[in-house]
Amino acid sequence: KMLSDELGPDWRTKVEAFEEKPFAAASI
After folding, report:
1. pTM, entire model
2. Where are the domains of the chain?
3. Out of the domains of life, which is the source (predicted)?
């Protein structure tokens, strides 16, 4: 499943915010 489908149009902003958190790498 695509991140854009799951998170919506601001997924890029959300990914940038999640980069600080350790689980971000696993979700990507």
Report:
1. 0.31
2. 1-28
3. Eukaryota
